[in-house]
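Recap from last week: sequence in, structure out.
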Amino acid sequence: MVTPYRLRLPAPSAPPLTGHLPFADAPGVPDPIEVTSRWLTRGGRPWFPVSGEFHYSRYPAREWEEELLKMKAGGVTVVASYIIWIHHEEIEGRVRFDGDRDLRRFAHLCSRHGLDFVPRIGPWSHAEVRNGGLPDWLLARGCTPRTDDPAYLGPVRAWFTAIAEQLRGLDRSHGGPIVAVQIENELYDQPGHLRTLKRMAQEAGLSAPLWTSTAWGGVQLPGDELIPLYGGYPEAFWTEADGGWPDTCRKHFFFTHQRDDEGIGADLRPTTVRGGDPTELVDRFPWATCELGGGMAVAYHRRPRVDAADIGALGLTKIGCGSVWQGYYMFHGGTNPSGELTTLQESHATGYPNDLPVLTYDFQAPLGEYGQVRPSYHELRLQHLLLADFGHVIAPMQSVLPERQPAGQHDRETLRWAVRGDGTSGFLFVNNHQPHEPLPDHPDTTFTVELAGDAEALTLPSTPVTVPAGAYFCWPLRLEVAGLRLEWATAQPVCTLDVGGRTVLVLAATDGIAPELALDAGTVSAVSAPSGDLTPVDGRVLVTGLRPGTDALVEVDTADGGRVGLLVLDAETARTAYRGVAWGAERLVLCADGVVFDRDEVRLHSAAAEPSFAVLPAPGRAPVVDGAVVREAADGVFTRYTVDGGCSRRDAAVSLVRPAGPAPETATGVLGRASVPADKQFDSVAAEYRVEVPDGLLDAPDGVLLRLRWTGDVGRAYVGDTLVADQFFSGRVWDIGLDRLPVDALRAEGLRLRVLPLAAAAPVYVPRAGAGRRAASVEHAEWVTVRRWRVRLG
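Predicted structure tokens:
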């Protein structure tokens, strides 16, 4: 029996409110940024930014440029970063902006590569940092933090002045990259204090067209002073160990017009404060985000595991819900710096509800703690390619939900879908994935979208399909492509290319659904396809039976004399497709195991052997790689730093020095949650291993990871007595970057691992994949070597 899903697109809504908010770009900039009540504009065109969080002070400065290029290759257009006060001024009066704290250099690198920058200046950041980022010396003064207490505002004013000095000349009026400044974080009930902080930042010299604030938890904002930014995570470490998958996370896998997430930061505010969408915020501001979960941290008591599909499905669902700014936290993981006085992680010892690892802040992000490229990077990049070419079309489109809605957040039977449309065209979004509780197949499915006015409704596909469990996708409806009207496609748009005088629309097939293209016959004079069938039906040409892949190119001569190609890639190949620009010629770069640098002539189907990232746009001068000028290069040519296919691997020699003793009894801290075992337990109870590090690896120019498969509770790595890496067991591998270790000390003292066992009754949540594995042991170790291009722009 066919299951028809039906939705009516309303007529185009009233124009958005413009000029009603006190946000202004610098005078005379060529692409002024403005805010309407429904979307952002840049240069007079709707603008759909993609921001990714990357904390420069948690990553080695020598690698910032390479990592920023990776983010750009992943479709990130805006880099956001907390400026974490305690990282810069742990000791009062000694403000450090050197080395890995060099904020100005980081902002310059963003600008150099065409990336916008959003400093999140706090002063309280959270970010799972000690005291939320406030220095110990400040709290010792007896002031009332996060209020207008003069004893607090005095040091904050000095801190803002120091930030402003670092960013001087990098504002928009000087051609700089700063498009927004975030004030504070997760402050829900102090609108007056937020206004004070904004005024202080402006008086210090900070300038930006946009000023923002996080908006979850029933936020109260000071009038129109700050743009509210929202979030949503697939999992949470800040809930109770035995609380199951939180409903506040579950709801993000449904199409809804509710923006708030009352779960974020809920452990740091009274339980009487609930979330909600204040009407004045919804009516006056566009739906923008800054914390869509690119992963999730692990706390000692709760260690969630997030998969690539969880991140990809959440991101795509938010676009369908109406988001006009995709902001991810984190997009790039990192490592906490070593404090001069104490450790710098959030902990029970500092009165916070969660014990975090001392060093690792990997966050299971698309780009990991050591630059690892994870599958979630490729899932999100496909969506970002879509937004790069069609974001200006999608942003003004209204999100419309079908009448038949799921009956609550525990309804797993009703198909979840929505349309972003302008009345006559749009994009159909479906999400049939969520973590923990798989959703079923939906057989015999069709969608009918009624258009505004007298236009004929679209019913697609022509033959009912099964929406597979785990699928999430976006299909175009009445998409105009260089004179061709694509009535629909059961494949997701990836990007458009200008190749050989023709426009080529690249699409990604949906796993388990045969691709079908419906062309408006009135815009077509001739069609050819290498495979499949062409069938005229009701004023359309249906293209069916295509075998997705690099040769599934449908050639169309348009009625107005143009030429259009429609290339339908299979889903796996599409995840490895990068769009590059090489000296004015566009190319699609494909490789079965990652990104490749295309050294062949510009052909749709060419793929070269050298692995690298191809990033657009092209630089003004040719890069120099290993001493040779690269004539056909994209902006930044460097090997993918990944532990997926294509890397060399060899076993690592790890020997047991001391077996583990009995698991220590679990102590509890804030909110009665389990606390990290005391340091002395690692000296007396932990299993200890010695890792033999071959001399050749220490001198290798390539990136090297020690990858450990292990079980237990907490793992720590030491060089001598210095802690160099740590991890809470959650069933995931443990990576340690060899180039982060002190080489001389490593040669002299070697690398030691200590692994604590987990008590059987410990009130700790470990995901199903790791549950029951409590013995302290290293089961397998290997060296993973990744070739890295040495790049300088010529």
